[in-house]
Amino acid sequence: MTMYLVQIVAILGSVLLFGIVIDFIRRGLLKEKYSVLWLAAAIIILALSLKKELLDTFAEKIGVAYPPSLLFLVAFLFVLLINLHFSVVISIFHEKNKVLSQELTLIKNALKESGIDLSGKGKGKGAGLPDD
To answer: How deeply is 56 buried, as exposed, middle or buried, from its count of CB atoms within 10 A (0-12, 13-18, 19+)?
Structure first.
């Protein structure tokens, strides 16, 4: 009875995950390139949940004593993989943001040294532009 309950929960969870990811893609909340891992996780968990023999075979080959715990191991590994992917993406964005900030500061300093007022508080016509 416990096996069936875990199997039903895993099937419902994977179908729910699949539906949520599709809905997020449809509404534009999740880009397609980020959804691939989520859809793959949902499909693999669904396949392992539906085919009990497949789950038992994998569990036996890797030494997992209780086959349903393999489902949660697979789900945990996918979440870990997705977190790693997002950490890489955040690191890349952080580096790009730092370079852009440095370039903006250099441009502001160059404009300031050439006499251009960036604050927009200049007086009259042509304020903020250098005199010829």
So the answer is: middle
